[in-house]
Amino acid sequence: xxxxxxxxxxxxxxxxxxxxxxxxxxxxxxxxxxxxxxxxxxxxxxxxxxxxxxxxxxxxxxxxxxxxxxxxxxxxxxxxxxxxxxxxxxxxxxxxxxxxxxxxxxxxxxxxxxxxxxxxxxxxxxxxxxxxxxxxxxxxxxxxxxxxxxxxxxxxxxxxxxxxxxxxxxxx
Length: 172
Known about the structure:
Elements: E1 2-7, H1 20-29, E2 33-38, E3 43-47, H2 50-53, H3 56-64, E4 70-74, H4 75-83, E5 96-103, E6 115-116, E7 122-128, E8 131-137, H5 143-154, E9 158-162, H6 163-171
Antiparallel strand pairs: 1-3, 1-4, 2-3, 5-8, 5-9, 6-7, 7-8
Helix pairs in contact: 4-6
């Protein structure tokens, strides 16, 4: 079975360094095949059994000596999430960025949706199960501020990806 795996908090600001070549080697030694990495921030596509994929987080912690939260999504489910992304009315561009946030806990945004920040920079437009779709206007706010809002609503057990990154992963 094919999976997309997203890691939270690696290779950011010099903390929790995980070299992609070392990660690929480790995953292959676990029995995965077709392992592809995308960017150094922890985006992987791999193939293997569902039983093995559930051991990734534990094995990474053993190998790298720190916890690496993993978000594991069957590849076809990711493809459907990307294809159904509800951004039809908001065109992405240099200053408008579309994001998809994955929550392990499956918690819900406590505010009615769509929701907008007071300054109009950040918008949460939809939640489908444990996936949240949002966008930011960089003329009005910063991505880091938007991520703090998401963590306030959903907790820290989330990871967010730019929709363009997910599109590249799905077609690779």
